[in-house]
Specification:
The complex is a heterodimer. By secondary structure, chain A is α+β, with helices and mostly antiparallel strands. Chain A is about 25% helix and about 25% strand. In chain B, helix 2 packs across helix 4 and helix 6 packs across helix 8. Classes of the chains: A alpha+beta, B mainly alpha.
């Protein structure tokens, strides 16, 4: 029994030991019966505490983002193919290697592109209704720009990406939680240059308010797009936005 | 009645079964997110913590075995550690974690979701039987991940007594709460 080392147990429990001190404690823990007993005691004493958490609603789209990110291939991550007792999983580390791979907004853009243009590698398409899994393995085309779309007034969210496919620039739009359309109503996507909107395309979301569409961008002349917007239109024929802009973002 | 156990799902996840991963995700999303949000107070960070947990489940083999205890307890431990990693990272970046409002997503209740309202009420009652200082040190130690020396300094108590005080508070909590019956022998499903 080494009192000084044993005294580090709580700080180890809270991920406060680093480097040699941490390694030394882990080595000590394997050999010290008293610490092992105490470790088990702390695990037991704290087991109920997470259930003190007030119920919090996960953010919109969290499930889709996480499952997409988790299951998409990541060559920078080496799978642990053998059983491991890596303490970084059951004890905190100071910097989690996974936390450095934070969900990237552009992944959703790539996902949509993968779905619609057969782009991407191992893109996991999440479908709430039939939960199809599509694995697409083709060469990734170049994504020039991706922006998050969000609504100030509703829970609608989306991602828009400009993706080069061969000689064609495509606008890929993926949306979630759009309000259902009625009758002739549709959603229209607009590319905006200065104060002039260009109609990029029309779509109708599925029964869950989700949609993923791709529009080739083929306008004459050179353009420098300033923004992308989605409007809820009374008909599919609007030459300029007549309805409500539900989401927009600068490009 | 036909419900796949956590361990069975975990084993399928080890075989890279995406349906099993999704079932496990659906079962624990709200609990893990709520717990992470309590610790991190930022929805973006809480989401990152939950993602880190599922990354580990999906990409690392053999992390969990039944001799490590209940899967749910183990999963919550992994979640807490993911949160602590993020807290440390924030501290290194000298970014203060501020409490923010959270977006609410109106979701229909998922049939297989771990719920814990009744347990939370019981625990809150048990917590209310602790002194204010005991409540503070439990919060600092468990949910904020403070060191013993930080707790000693902030609560103005001798460093040598911190561990004992935390233990006493937690033992009292456990006694009061578990007298009502351990609710976690099986997960409660809505």
């Amino acid at each position: 029994m080494e009192p000084k080392t044993c005294g580090n147990l709580l700080d180890y429990y809270n991920g406060l030991l680093e480097g040699k001190e941490k390694d030394a404690f882990e080595k000590h823990l394997k050999q010290c019966d008293a610490c092992q007993e105490e470790w088990a005691e702390w695990q037991d004493l704290t087991a109920d505490l997470p259930y003190l958490s007030e119920e919090a609603q996960p953010p919109i789209g969290m499930k889709e983002r996480i499952l997409t990110n988790v299951t998409s291939s990541d060559s920078s991550f080496t799978r642990q193919e053998t059983e491991t007792v890596n303490k970084t999983d059951e004890n905190p580390t100071n910097i989690s290697p996974l936390s450095q791979r934070r969900p990237k907004p552009w992944l959703q853009g790539v996902l949509a592109a993968g779905l619609l243009l057969s782009l991407g590698t191992n893109a996991y398409l999440f479908n709430e209704n039939n939960k199809n899994e599509q694995v697409i393995q083709e060469q990734i085309n170049k994504t020039f720009k991706t922006v998050q779309l969000a609504s100030e007034e509703t829970e609608s969210t989306g991602v828009a990406s400009m993706v080069q496919e061969n000689d064609t620039m495509n606008l890929v739009v993926q949306t979630n939680n759009l309000t259902q359309v009625k009758g002739t109503e549709t959603y229209q996507v607009w590319l905006i240059e200065g104060d002039k909107p260009y109609r990029a395309g029309t779509f109708t979301p599925d029964e869950n308010g989700n949609g993923a569409v791709v529009f080739p961008v083929k306008f004459e002349g050179e353009h420098k797009w300033d923004a992308v917007a989605i409007s809820h239109e009374p008909t599919p024929n609007s030459k300029k936005p007549l309805g409500t802009i539900v989401m927009a973002s600068n490009l | 009645m036909g419900r796949t156990s956590d361990y069975e799902l975990y084993q399928k996840v080890q075989e890279e079964n995406k349906e099993a991963l999704e079932m496990l995700y659906d079962r624990y999303e709200k609990l893990l997110f709520s717990f992470s949000f309590k610790m991190l107070r930022q929805k973006e960070l809480a989401e990152e913590a939950v993602q880190d947990v599922f990354m580990k489940l999906w990409r690392k083999k053999g992390l969990y075995s039944e001799d490590k205890g209940k899967f749910s307890s183990w999963l919550l431990t992994v979640t807490r550690n993911a949160c602590i990693d993020l807290i440390r990272k924030q501290q290194k970046n000298e970014v203060e974690i501020l409490e923010k409002d959270i977006d609410h997503e109106r979701t229909e209740s998922v049939e297989e979701t771990v719920t814990w309202n009744e347990e939370r009420e019981g625990l809150k009652k048990a917590v209310s039987s602790l002194t204010e200082e005991q409540q503070d040190i439990v919060e600092m130690f468990y949910f904020k991940g403070y060191s013993q020396s930080d707790i000693a300094e902030r609560k103005n108590i001798p460093l040598g007594t911190v561990k004992g005080r935390i233990r006493l508070a937690l033992k009292h909590l456990k006694k009061i709460y578990r007298e009502r019956g351990d609710k976690y022998g099986t997960e409660n499903l809505r």
